[in-house]
Amino acid sequence: MQQIIQWLEQMSVTHYGGNSVQDYLVTLMLLVLGVFVARGARFVLSRLLPRLAQLTASDLDDRIVERTLGPLAATTLLPFVTIGIGLLEMPVTIRRLLNNGVTVAMNVLFAVMVLRVVDIVFRHGLPRWRGQSKQGVTSQALEFGRKFTKISVVVVFAVGILKTFGFDIFSLVTGLGIGGLAVALAAQETLGNVLGSLQIMTDRPYDVGDIIRVGGHMGRVTTVGLRSTKLLSPTGVQIVIPNKRLAESPIENLSVFRGLTVELTVGLTYDASAADLQEMIDVLKNDISAHDDVDDEVEVYFRGFGASSLDLHIVYFIPDVSKRLKVRSEMNLLVRQRVERQGLAFAFPTQTLHFAHESQAKSP
Fold first, then answer.
1. Which CATH number fits domain 207-255: 3.40.1000.20, 3.40.50.150, 2.30.290.10, 2.30.30.60?
2. Mean pLDDT of 53-63
3. pTM
4. Tens of pLDDT, residues 240-249
5. Distances in Å between the alpha carbon of 109 and those of 45, 105, 113, 154?
6. What are the angstrom distances between the C-alpha of 312 and each of 122, 249, 316, 338, 363?
7. Does the domain made of 258-341 have the CATH classification 3.30.70.100?
């Protein structure tokens, strides 16, 4: 026991960097205690808060509790760090820097919690409200609001952190205003895309999940961002189109239509008789209308006499736009099979030349 007392007395008189070994050990024990308190707080909160959240009918608070539990418990460690810093002797500059670091950590933890709450509200709460209230709020408007809110939260906490380190926010904003013109010119394309996204959300020409055609590209809308819109083409290729271009280009939204009307002209050779043409018309009309993915109202008629063919015109309707490629392929094969089965032939551009006899060509 006497040796332990002597060892403790020796630690109290042995100094490093202006602090005794005992001071360092006390600070270390305090930090270890803070870690255990944080873990204990997480354990208690993980048992208490979910039970309180279950008292409500909505599962929104359950999601919030689940996502914010970790950062909330971590904040209980910071007071112990602050106390530990106060126990040690150190230069004023170092102490201020460490205390500012604790403040920054507190701001970051709260920012993480707020950002997670924003995600949950915009991805789970507001879409549910939109469905219940039947308000005209598109999914891209919600996505834009989510991103804008998160950016605003980051800016607010960043300003708070800068003020913690003594930055003059007014002077900083003034400096940014001086260089704002150069930044605006450099980011003109980006700003144009952001404004384009606002215009898209205002006009609502399409929504996520719609099939659109623009500028020779066609696909299903998968993402509407601040800068661009992403499409997934029928071949599985991702197409990224800047919102500025979308705002300035004609957009065909195939999903707003009830279906897709397909027109097809079939040219048959001139050796087909009138009876052959009428029989071909009847066969095509019956067989195409019998297809499961084609509307019953099918039009097939003799369109006219072409330069090298007798033209039949076919008009049919596909109710499900997503099956358009498959159905058109099947209809084209069906037409070819029926023409071949009827013993007819497809025409192609030909010319028949008649030469007069030389003696007949001479004048008397």
1. 2.30.30.60
2. 77
3. 0.51
4. 988 888 888 8
5. 16, 6, 6, 12
6. 54, 35, 13, 13, 44
7. yes
